[in-house]
Write a structure and sequence with these properties.
CATH topology: OB fold (Dihydrolipoamide Acetyltransferase, E2P)
CATH superfamily: Nucleic acid-binding proteins
Largest sheet: 5 strands, mixed, barrel
Oligomer: single chain
Number of domains: 1
Order of helices and strands: EEEEHEEEE
Helix content: under 10%
Strand order of the largest sheet: 1-3-4-6-5
Structural class: mainly beta
């Protein structure tokens, strides 16, 4: 049976993206996103709980993240969970859990192309592997109704 490994996050960046250039010339960008939730405990006291998620993006998405993301920005990321095993300096085996991002949407960022600082900015989806192929896609924007139907005269309608 096949499984599903999909993560969807909406949160704020805790720091500017860190950019690494690979020997092949490709790029990898890593950054952290904080997601928060609040609830009332048994005593009725509001408690806020924050989780930090380490995001990794490659090639085309790395270029976009490097160009547009800054500390404090709100971002929507889709990707999959990746666990990396490594050995530290003392010889102890460690695990690191990362999110390999394959889709990015900039939320309310005034630096994004076509964004005026309000609402959602363009979305980008791409192959987060070593390929340099990525396909920009624009998030759907609701269209207002035609002007003649907004508060217009009902006598103009054909029925």
């Amino acid at each position: 049976m096949a499984g599903v490994n999909k993560v969807i996050l909406l949160g704020r960046l805790g720091s500017d993206p860190e950019v690494r250039t690979l020997p092949s010339g490709g790029k990898v960008v890593t950054f952290s996103i904080a997601t928060s939730e609040s609830y009332n405990n048994k005593e009725g006291v509001k408690v806020e709980q924050t989780e930090w998620h380490r995001i990794e993006m490659w090639e085309g998405l790395a270029n976009i993240a490097e160009q547009y993301l800054k500390k404090g920005d709100m971002a929507y990321v889709e990707g999959r969970i990746r666990t990396e095993k490594w050995t530290d300096k003392e010889g102890i085996e460690r695990n690191t859990v990362k999110i390999r991002g394959n889709s990015l949407q900039l939320i309310g960022s005034g630096r994004a192309a076509g964004s005026d600082g309000e609402g959602a900015a363009p979305a980008y989806a791409g192959n987060s592997g070593s390929s340099n192929n990525y396909t920009p896609k624009v998030a759907p924007v609701p269209m207002p109704p035609p002007p003649d139907l907004v508060g217009g005269n009902s006598d103009d309608l054909p029925f």
